């Protein structure tokens, strides 16, 4: 049975509106950890919250769960304002970073925990635990204790326990962070498959860009407690709101530019790139900018090309090539060159045709 089929057994009109956070502000003493964050998660949708360490991701999650008091804004769940509600009244399933499974209880007892706490009758509890064991593929491990499980299996126990209560929202705090890097790729796909089966609104906190891009149907990017951009992974990648977003998500560089006489002028006019060498895309974020990724630039000795002189500050062998870090004036850029390329202390850079993007308002 799928998670969705298991959930469909109850009528669920109340969850139709998912989760909404409006102007959320949270203080720890005089420090504002979250500042006016607004986002929404539709039923059956997964939204990833990402950002650098200390930007307020976990605090946002904890405020939604009711575990920290809010100093402003509102949280609504399934169409009800739950801002002042106790955590236990919110019908939220929370999977904390360390999974917090009870070590002295069997897998089955862990999954039954929330149902027992709500006074669910024994027969219904057994049935629901059986369903959750099945959908998380833990049936054969039902009587084991958590210390007899792998990290990935423990994660599934935590997920099954959170989903057993049929929550309106599921909150996952760094669900893969505790696992071996080698296992993460496979478990990410497994988690994505399980989340695709649920019909609750899922908010997942991660500091891993790849995890956010692959698990979130939308991504909320936070910086210093503020929401910088809330968008689909594709739009965040293709049309970042600012240089911070471009860098954080893709290690890309965003340069202010102006277009003049068939050329894009960047770096205060020091670099004049023919527009015909650029991919031109419209931006939803106002100004004209040049988006450069690692493969956007090449090193050239062709004096006929529009070059930018730069100084090599670092070079790193990546197997299939060498990644150079270069500095043009104050601007730091990344360039990938073939493994056998001969580069000295300074290089002439040109755009790889079609690989750098000119973002233009209303293009
Ligand atoms: N209990 C607390 N008391 C005081 N300050 C706190 C507390 N918890 C978090 N903070 C501060 O609030 C800010 C946001 O913390 P939060 O844990 O939400 O960030 P995060 O984005 O989840 O970080 P990380 O990725 O490192 O887990 C940080 O500046 C942090 O130092």
UniProtKB/TrEMBL annotation:
Gene Ontology CC annotations of this record: ATP-binding cassette (ABC) transporter complex
EC number(s) recorded for this UniProt protein: 7.6.2.9
SMART domains: AAA
Top-tier EC class: translocase
Occurrences of domain ABC transporter (ranges): 19-249
Keyword vocabulary terms for this entry: ATP-binding, Cell membrane, Ion transport, Iron, Iron transport, Membrane, Nucleotide-binding, Transport
Classification via InterPro entries: AAA+_ATPase, ABC_SmlMolc_Importer, ABC_transporter-like_ATP-bd, ABC_transporter-like_CS, ABC_transpr_FbpC, Mo/tungstate-bd_C_term_dom, P-loop_NTPase, Transp-assoc_OB_typ2
GO terms assigned for molecular function: ABC-type ferric iron transporter activity; ABC-type quaternary ammonium compound transporting activity; ATP binding; ATP hydrolysis activity
PROSITE patterns assigned: ABC_TRANSPORTER_1, ABC_TRANSPORTER_2
PANTHER family the UniProt entry points to: SPERMIDINE/PUTRESCINE IMPORT ATP-BINDING PROTEIN POTA, SPERMIDINE_PUTRESCINE IMPORT ATP-BINDING PROTEIN POTA
Protein name in UniProt: ABC-type quaternary amine transporter
């Amino acid at each position: 049975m799928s998670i969705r089929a298991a959930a469909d057994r109850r009528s669920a009109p109340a969850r139709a509106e998912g989760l909404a956070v409006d102007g959320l502000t949270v203080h720890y003493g005089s420090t504002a950890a979250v500042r006016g964050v607004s986002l929404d998660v539709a039923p059956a949708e997964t939204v990833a919250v990402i950002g650098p360490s200390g930007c307020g991701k976990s605090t946002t999650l904890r405020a939604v769960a009711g575990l920290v008091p809010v100093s402003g804004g509102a949280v609504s769940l399934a169409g009800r304002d739950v801002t002042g509600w106790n955590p236990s009244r919110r019908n939220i399933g929370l999977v904390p970073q360390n999974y917090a499974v009870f070590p002295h209880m069997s897998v089955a007892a862990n999954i039954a925990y929330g149902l027992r706490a709500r006074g669910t009758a024994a027969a219904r509890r057994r049935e629901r635990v059986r369903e959750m064991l099945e959908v998380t593929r833990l049936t054969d491990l039902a009587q084991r204790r958590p210390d007899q499980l792998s990290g990935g299996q423990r994660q599934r126990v935590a997920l099954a326990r959170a989903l057993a209560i049929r929550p309106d929202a599921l909150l996952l705090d760094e669900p893969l962070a505790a696992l071996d890097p080698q296992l993460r790729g496979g478990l990410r796909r497994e988690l994505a498959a399980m989340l695709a089966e649920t019909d609750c609104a899922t908010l997942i906190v991660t500091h891993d860009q790849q995890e956010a891009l692959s698990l979130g149907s939308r991504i909320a990017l936070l910086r210093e407690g503020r929401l910088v951009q809330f968008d689909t992974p594709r739009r965040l990648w293709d049309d970042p709101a600012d240089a911070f977003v471009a860098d954080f998500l893709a290690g890309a560089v965003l340069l202010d530019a102006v277009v003049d006489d068939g050329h894009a002028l960047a770096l205060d006019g020091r670099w004049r790139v023919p527009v015909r060498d650029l991919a031109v895309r419209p931006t939803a974020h106002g100004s004209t900018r040049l988006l450069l990724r690692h493969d956007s630039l090449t090193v050239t000795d062709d004096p006929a090309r529009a070059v930018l002189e730069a100084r090599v500050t670092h070079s790193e062998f990546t197997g299939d090539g060498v990644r150079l870090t270069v500095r043009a004036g104050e601007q730091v850029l990344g360039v990938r060159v073939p493994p056998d390329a001969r580069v000295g202390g300074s290089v002439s850079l040109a755009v790889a045709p079609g690989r750098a993007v000119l973002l233009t308002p209303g293009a």
